[in-house]
Amino acid sequence: MKPQEGRLATRLTRSYLNLIGRGILHVIRTIHGLGAFALITLGVTFDEIWALTESHFSPRSLANLSRRLAAVADDFFFGGRPGPGDHWAGGPRF
Questions:
Q1: Is the full-model pTM beyond 0.85?
Q2: Residue 79: which region, alpha, beta or left (left: phi > 0; alpha: psi -120 to 50)?
Q3: What DSSP letter does each residue of the chain carry, written as one string?
Q4: Which of 2, 27, 62, 64 is the most exposed place for a label (fewest CB within 10 A)?
Q5: Pick the residue with more confidence: 74 or 42?
Q6: In whole angstroms, what is the distance from residue 20 CA to residue 22 CA?
Q7: CB under 8 Å to 91, separation ≥6 — which residues?
Q8: For the chain, percent of residues with pLDDT exceeding 90
């Protein structure tokens, strides 16, 4: 093998690695941007929903609603005790 061939192989390997690295960084930047967009969109959506519910419901009914939603989420995610009407153990009870 001539010395020129070794240099050419090294140069080609380096350029392919640079290309792959740029592609990986591009994907990471894209995911980062989409995640930021999703978080901002969810924040604005929840803010608008909260403003709408605050103007239509009393604080007492909102407290009851949030307490009930927390109980349902607890049952759903952490498998509350099965009740008499449950078809499968650990499901949400409505």
A1: no
A2: left
A3: --HHHHHHHHHHHHHHHHHHHHHHHHHHHHHHHHHHHHHHHHHHHHHHHHHHHHHHS-HHHHHHHHHHHHHHHHHHHHTPPP-TT-SSTT----
A4: 2
A5: 42
A6: 5
A7: 75, 76, 82
A8: 31
> What six digits make up the tokens of 6?
């070794």
Mean pLDDT of 11-40: 93
Give the whole-angstrom CA distance, residue 63 versus residue 75: 18
Structure tokens at 41: 């969109």
**Which residue type does 33 have?**
G
Quick one: tokens of 21? 């690295």
